[in-house]
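retry 2 of 3: previous attempt timed out while embedding fe (ii) ion. Reduced batch size to 1 and resubmitted. Inputs unchanged:
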Amino acid sequence: MKPTPSEPKLPSRDEYYNLATKLEWTPKYVSEEELFPVDMSGIPNLPMDVWEELYDAPYKVTYREYVKNQKEKDQRFFAVREAGLRSELLKKLDPTYHQGTFCFHITAVPIPEYTASIAEARMARFGKSGEWRNLSTFGSMDEIRHTQLQILLSHDNIAVDPKFAFSHKMFYVDGWLPIAARSFFDDTITGTSAIEFALMTTFAFETGFTNLQFVALAAMANKTNDFVFSTTTQSIQTDESRHAQIGHPVLKIFSDITKLSDDLVKKA
Ligand SMILES: [Fe+2]
Ligand SMILES: [Fe+2]
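retry 2 succeeded.
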């Protein structure tokens, strides 16, 4: 009897996750210092193979899962926004909420979200571990999505009040708030190395502030029957809680460094 050829066994999701995200180039034509300049990658300047070994993200997502999830989230957002526009929701909202908290958030947040997409892209290039760069690529796409959704909601509101145009203008005027915001976000986002951004923004700001802000705003919007903004902030928050975890393994490396050889620590 002829033996039946065995079916080729495809790697499981967990097997190909590691295979795909922990795949590293071996640079031959440039030195590691040229490929990952310390000003862009940050300190401690540990070798690539050490980062590769130590960086272990708590939230693992493949590109296929990412695209499927994001597509479903966007479909939900656009369906709910359409329902809000057709039912003329904006005319029915409580003016204190609409002209106050909602207006403040929707005009202040989109441009900082855009700056975050730049810094996520910096980690996607200069983070010294494949898994870190992979998750930052998703993070950068997340932040562009957040910018676009919130600018779109501001645009829907311009007919009600022209001050909603500040979601575009916010960083280009010299009021006290834009000056303070520019300075703060230059320090924590636009002017940072990959390691600094991972610690100051994804670990500290996004874990400690952004997640809480979006959860509280979703609850507040829900109470005032603003189902469009409630859906939007919940949708954004699910991205934030994922990429907020990029910084945790970076922070852990600061404690792991004590276990490394003295030689490596001195070089770093
Ligand atoms: Fe964001
Ligand atoms: Fe974020």
